[in-house]
Amino acid sequence: MFKKFLFATTLTAAVLGLGLPASADIRVDNIVVNQSAPTPEGTNIRVNLVNDGDLRQRPSLVELQARDNASQAWHTVKSWDWDQSVAPGDKLALDYLPARGESLDSTLQQPRYELRAVVMGVSGPMTSYEYQYSPGVEVR
Fold this sequence. Notes:
Blueprint: H1 2-19, E1 26-35, E2 43-51, E3 61-67, E4 75-80, E5 91-96, E6 113-121, E7 124-133
Antiparallel strand pairs: 1-2, 2-5, 3-4, 3-6, 6-7
């Protein structure tokens, strides 16, 4: 009897779930690079997030990753972790501002490079966004 009830409940939930619109989680709106020079004090990278869903979301980690080009593997440049939730409609900006004297990642010293922001939740990746940086060229 319990197995039949469990099957019916699971089937009903699956059918109802197919008919409901998907609620989005935290989304990376964009990545903005302000780099006047390939030095720590000349570099500012902002990751803009938005919660365009209907529920509060609590990302556990956001990683800014970089690579020289598509043939290379991604590596983490900066990580942000916190214990805050983001309300529906709220926006959040995370800035990577290397300190004077801090070693700047070698990828960020190249004339062109790729960035990726990955938002992690408790159950794994929530979303990601890729951006190709080339001075003087805005690519979205």
